[in-house]
Specification:
The chain is 32% helix and 29% strand. The protein is of the alpha/beta class. The strands form two sheets. The chain has a six-stranded mixed sheet, with helices on both faces. Strands 2-1-4-5 form a four-stranded antiparallel sheet, with helices on one face. The longest helix has 18 residues, at 178-195. It binds adenosine-5'-diphosphate and magnesium ion. Residues 48-49 line the site of magnesium ion (MG).
Length: 234
């Protein structure tokens, strides 16, 4: 299993700020393989979220090449990127970003209802995912009726709704207490084991980073270290 899931070469991102330009990324090279669990760490402002946004097709680089699952997305337009995101990528955010008026089940079913083509029945799939993430008795709860850790597990189920090969998480435990953070970590490890999903996690959480196969260190828009924590699984 040596398939490349993410290939990034020479990624730069320049952002205009008044009369100045912010160099958010200064030439990042990165290869991530199918089935890997990767941590991205670095000080605040080092470019972690910018990099994750570019990997996920939410943002485009100023320079460089980005390929996802063998597809060069560098010059894609917004419609093409939307399709790549829907087909290949699940996102998890620090503040869960669930729709407050919908139940857990409805939040997870929604991306399946929006999929252009799918082999899933939205409700059935949502129920299965939420059950497998330990929330079988929370299907009809709205986000405000759930704890932070439960909301994040709903968000993980939603990210997995269309069975994407790639899961991207930006500070997924950043807003959780230790115990809820541990449950989220366990959920991510379970997903990787069950579905072989490639998982990239931006985090300040040392425990979370320590469970990755590799930890990539960003400083000031540059990748300064590629730290291997586990022997090659591939
Ligand atoms: N929309 C934006 N406009 C201007 N500057 C931005 C924008 N987004 C991020 N930046 C700047 O880019 C740099 C990297 O930000 P970010 O990727 O959010 O870092 P991190 O996630 O590591 O904290 C920072 O200097 C930040 O202030
Ligand atoms: Mg960030």
């Amino acid at each position: 299993m040596t398939q490349l899931m993410i290939h990034a070469a020479g990624i730069t991102k320049e952002l205009p700020l008044g009369q100045h330009v912010i160099h958010a990324l200064r030439g990042v090279d990165m290869d991530i393989y199918s089935g890997e669990m990767i941590g991205i760490v670095g000080p605040s402002g080092s470019g972690k979220s910018t990099l994750l946004g570019i990997i996920g097709g939410l943002d485009t680089p100023t320079q460089g090449i980005i390929e996802i699952d063998g597809v060069n997305i560098t010059r894609m337009n917004e419609d093409q990127l939307t399709e790549i995101r829907n087909e290949k990528i699940g996102f998890i955010f620090q503040f869960f970003n669930l729709i407050p008026t919908l139940t857990a089940l409805e939040n997870v079913a929604l991306p399946i209802q929006f999929a252009r083509k799918t082999r899933y029945q939205p409700e059935k799939r949502a129920r299965e995912l939420l059950t497998s993430l330990g929330l079988p008795d929370r299907l009809n709860h709205r986000p405000a009726e759930l704890s932070g850790g439960q909301q994040q597990r709903v968000a993980i189920a939603r990210a997995l709704a269309n069975n994407p090969p790639l899961l991207l998480a930006d500070e997924p435990t950043g807003n959780l207490d230790t115990e809820s953070g541990a449950a989220v970590l366990q959920a991510l490890e379970q997903i990787r084991a069950e579905f072989g999903t490639t998982i990239v996690i931006v985090t300040h959480d040392r425990e979370l980073a320590s469970r990755a196969d590799r930890v990539l260190h960003l400083v000031d828009g540059r990748m300064v270290e590629d730290e291997k924590l586990k022997p090659e699984a591939r």
